[in-house]
Structure formats: structure tokens, C-alpha cells
Write a structure and sequence with these properties.
Elements lengths: L28 E6 L4 E6 L11 E6 L2 E2 L3 E6 L4 E6 L11 E5 L8 E4 L2 E9 L2 E6 L6 H8 L15 H7 L8 E3 L11 H9 L2 E8 L11 H6 L1 E9 L1 H12 L4 E4 H9 L2 H6 L5 E7 L12 E5 L6 H12 L6 H10 L10 E4 L1
Parallel strand pairs: 1-17, 3-12, 3-14, 4-11, 14-16
Antiparallel strand pairs: 1-2, 5-6, 5-8, 6-7, 7-10, 8-9, 9-10, 12-13, 13-15, 16-17
Length: 351
């Protein structure tokens, strides 16, 4: 039996993979699809505001990327690369989760310079490490010794670590807890935000700390159970109130990216019906065709990897909007027009 995501297979010429970000950020191209009249137009991201309704509320994910890829030294002197899953926090015993490129032995010690960890247990791909230092020091250790974990499909980038840290990060990023950027937001600049404000488009932030699951293969049980990897999210009381007011006033909500979309749609019951409060929880929502979107009215997103859960989410949104074109139709046009794909690629707006 075919995997259900096989329907989202497409072939992308290698030259259309965005291997470096647009410079300046808002010079990225913008693919606009108006589902109401089935019209596709092309523009530049700098002109985003002119395509949006007014008034409107735009929701952005303000998570930040931490340089979570590090080289550990084993107590035998050998080296092993690991990705520290900061987004998952610590477990009940104060251990941190790490994906390592080589097998680690439970009970042995590994270190980052003078900072040591004991390997406590293994759970599938993950190893759980107990630090011999205050866990609050971990972010500064990663800042000093880590590198930015850009997606594996980008390969080795022709950019310095300094430049990657700046460009694989949104201009409005707050606390750094993610191992991947909310890439739909990478094109925003102060110029774009000014143009949104001038048009009467309000912005509000939510937080979803992006984990390794963004790159993970979707398995049959994910599809059957309609769940993905679990990620922590936070919606401040102020953003909660702003979102609720917009929905009650029938002001359209524009989600920037699949992470903001998953954050909003996972909290529908609270956002529509409950008294505003700070929400701090987690979600593993898997949005597939047939899903009825309750919060998001318009979507800004990048062009995603073939056969991914992200493509399923975008196609679900197109079906929800009763669009005449599906995601593969749109991607075929984008390829023909030589749009750049993936994390450093161009942008799509679905109205």
C-alpha cells in the first residue's frame, strides 16, 4: 500500500533549492494565490501588504533558533556530533535529550570542553544526558561552542556560521529554544512591518519551539492517529485576547507559517470560547486534508519538501478554502516560474 503522503511527491530541479537567503530579506519573491477567483500573481515580498485585506490580524511565531549542533568528546577521547533538543526542555530527572551521530554508552561520560554529561538512558534515536553543571548555563555553552542546525537537505552552506546565525533567524525572534527556524517569517523586515501597520494590519506573536520532528519522516501511525511530534507552545494573554477579539469581530486572521498555524488551530476551543489567559502547553496536531480550519483565514508559507506533513497542511488549507488548484498545481507553476524552494526559498500567500 502506498504511503498517504506519496500523493505529495514532486520533482524539484536542484538549482531551485534556496541555498542562501534573499538579500535583502524582503527581496524574496512572493507567489500569490487568490482562491476566491483562482488567480495566481507574482510579486516581491516587500509588497506583501498590498495583497492583504484590511483590517486584518497577522500572527507570527517569535521562537528563536539556538546553535544546538555541537561536537562532544567521549571519555575515550573520541568525537561525536550531537543535536541538543533544547526545545524539549529537561525530563523529570533533569536530563536533556540529544540526537547523536554515533552510539553512546549508558553510564559513560561525554563533554563539551570542561562541561560534562553522563549518558543516563537511550530512547530510540534520543540519548538522555545528565549535566554536571547548572542547566541554566546550557544556552550560553551552546552559543559559545555550538553551530546552527540548518536543515539536512541544504547540505553544506557557503556561508559563515556568523552569517547563518543572523540569517537563519527572524528579525523579531525572542527566546532561543528551537532547532529550526519558522522559515515563512525569514522574509520580514522593519520596512514590511511598517507597510503592514500603515495598511491597518495588526500583528501579534505566538511561540512554538520547533523540534527535530520538523525533519522527521512521517510514519503510518502518525497518519492513522493524526499526530506528529510534540512541540511546546505559548500564547500570551495579550495575544490570546487579540486573537479572540479578531475572531469575534470577523477580522481575518493571517497565519505566518505552518508553525503559527498549528499553534492556533491546536488551541481552537480556548481561543474561541474561554476567558483570555496565558496558554503554556504542547501540541502534536497533524493537519491533513479534511481538517476544518477555525482560526486561520489566510496563510503565508514557504515551498516545502516533497511528501512532507507541511505539504499536507497547506493542501488541507487549499481544500478548506475550496480552491480549484491543489498544492501540486501551485508547485508546478512555481517550478515553471523558477521560484526558490525550502527554508531559504521564496514565499507563498494563499488568500
Amino acid at each position: 500500500m502506498d504511503h498517504p503522503l506519496n500523493q505529495y511527491h514532486y520533482d524539484l530541479p536542484d538549482k531551485l533549492i534556496g541555498r542562501e537567503p534573499a538579500n535583502p530579506r524582503d527581496s524574496a519573491r512572493l507567489f500569490v494565490y487568490d482562491t476566491r477567483n483562482d488567480i495566481v500573481t507574482f510579486d516581491t515580498f516587500k509588497n506583501l501588504a498590498k495583497h492583504l485585506p484590511s483590517p486584518a490580524l497577522m500572527i507570527l511565531n517569535d521562537t528563536g533558533v539556538i546553535p544546538a549542533r555541537v561536537e562532544f568528546t567521549k571519555d575515550t577521547g573520541g568525537k561525536v556530533e550531537g543535536l541538543v533538543l533544547v526545545n524539549e526542555g529537561t525530563d523529570a530527572d533533569g536530563n536533556i535529550a540529544v540526537i547523536a551521530t554515533k552510539q553512546l554508552i549508558v553510564g559513560r561520560t561525554i563533554s563539551i570542553t570542561e562541561h560534562s554529561f553522563t549518558v543516563m538512558r537511550q530512547d530510540g534515536q534520543k540519548f538522555f544526558l545528565k549535566p554536571d553543571f547548572e542547566i541554566s548555563l546550557l544556552p550560553s555553552i551552546l552559543e559559545k561552542y555550538g553551530t546552527t542546525p540548518t536543515p539536512p537537505y541544504l547540505g553544506t552552506l557557503a556561508m559563515s556560521e556568523h552569517d547563518v546565525r543572523e540569517r537563519y533567524q527572524t528579525v523579531f525572534a525572542q527566546e532561543q529554544k528551537s532547532v529550526a527556524a519558522p522559515t515563512a517569517s525569514l522574509h520580514f523586515t522593519e520596512t514590511v512591518f511598517r507597510s503592514l501597520e500603515e495598511k491597518g494590519i495588526e500583528t501579534a506573536h505566538v511561540t512554538l519551539d520547533v523540534g527535530l520532528g520538523t525533519f522527521a519522516t512521517v510514519k503510518a501511525e502518525n497518519i492513522e492517529g493524526k499526530f506528529l511530534h510534540t512541540e511546546h507552545l505559548k500564547i500570551s494573554r495579550s495575544s490570546f485576547e487579540t486573537i479572540q477579539n479578531a475572531k469575534h469581530s470577523q477580522v481575518p486572521v493571517i497565519a505566518v507559517g505552518t508553525t503559527a498555524t498549528r499553534t492556533l488551530e491546536s488551541q481552537v476551543a480556548k481561543l474561541l470560547n474561554e476567558k483570555p489567559e496565558t496558554i503554556s502547553t504542547s501540541t502534536n496536531i497533524f493537519i491533513m486534508p479534511g481538517y476544518d480550519f477555525k482560526i486561520v483565514d489566510h496563510l503565508i508559507t514557504n515551498f516545502h519538501v516533497s511528501e512532507s506533513s507541511l505539504m499536507a497542511l497547506v493542501d488541507a488549507f487549499l481544500q478548506h478554502k475550496k480552491a480549484k488548484k491543489n498544492i501540486l498545481d501551485l508547485y508546478a507553476i512555481a517550478i515553471e516560474q523558477k521560484f526558490k524552494f525550502y527554508s531559504f526559498g521564496d514565499s507563498m500567500l494563499i488568500l
